[in-house]
């Protein structure tokens, strides 16, 4: 069982991932902009700590206060991803781990989207406002001081995978 390391769940929603981490022995702290989602997370994870927080604002935690953080399918909805990645870096301890998942946008997949689903995929009323390839996400993380990247692709087969997952160390 892991130590009682604090893990930050950025965009925790109703707390499903936080619940799994708490069950595995981690101390989870979740943040989300939705008051309703935070209320549900508090009910789902009685020992967890949850805050209503707009991630466009500075995180309400001291520097180096978490051993790990994760953000699952959130960064593509953020106007200023550089800001939130820098804030996560600030609150992670040296050597802290960050896991991010986001829809994958590599060259082959982008060509397929451009040919067959451009209007649907890039609908200006759609929820995604940022699109990441492995290189663009890596560059964003490097600028915030992350190193030692490990990549995973989920859903379908590479190079048309649905999601890109990166694990990076501070």
CATH class of the domain at 54-169: Alpha Beta
CATH fold-type name of the domain at 54-169: Rossmann fold
Which residues form runs of ≥5 with pLDDT under 50? none
Could you name the CATH homologous superfamily of the domain at 54-169?
A: Vaccinia Virus protein VP39
Shape label:
globular
Task: Report mean pLDDT, rounded to a whole number.
Answer: 92
Summarize this structure as a short list of keywords or feature phrases.
170 residues, alpha/beta, Rossmann fold, 7-stranded mixed β-sheet, 6 helices, 7 strands, 31% helix, 29% strand
Question: Can you tell me about this structure?
Answer:
The chain is of the alpha/beta class and 170 residues long. It has a domain at 54-169: Rossmann fold (3-Layer(aba) Sandwich). It is 31% helix and 29% strand. The protein has six helices and seven strands; from the N terminus they run βαβαββαβαααββ. The protein has helices spanning 16-23, 35-44, 81-91, 107-116, 118-121, 134-143, and strands at residues 6-10, 27-32, 49-52, 66-72, 92-103, 147-154, 163-169. The protein has a seven-stranded mixed beta sheet, sandwiched between helices. The radius of gyration is 16 Å and the shape is globular. The chain starts with 5 loop residues before the first strand and ends with a strand.
């Amino acid at each position: 069982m892991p130590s009682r390391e604090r893990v930050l769940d950025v965009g925790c929603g109703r707390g499903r991932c936080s619940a799994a981490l708490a069950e595995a022995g981690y101390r989870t702290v979740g943040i989300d902009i939705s008051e309703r989602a935070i209320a549900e997370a508090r009910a789902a994870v009685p020992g967890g700590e949850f805050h209503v927080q707009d991630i466009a604002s500075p995180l309400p935690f001291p520097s180096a206060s978490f051993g790990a953080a994760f953000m699952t399918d959130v960064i593509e909805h953020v106007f200023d991803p550089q800001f939130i990645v820098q804030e996560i870096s600030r609150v992670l301890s040296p050597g802290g781990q960050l896991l991010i998942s986001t829809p994958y946008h590599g060259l082959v997949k982008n060509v397929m989207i451009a040919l067959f689903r451009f209007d649907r995929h890039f609908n200006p009323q759609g929820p995604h406002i940022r699109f990441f390839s492995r290189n663009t996400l890596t560059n964003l993380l490097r600028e915030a001081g992350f190193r030692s990247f490990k990549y995973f692709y989920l859903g379908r087969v590479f190079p048309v995978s649905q999601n890109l997952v990166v694990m990076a160390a501070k």
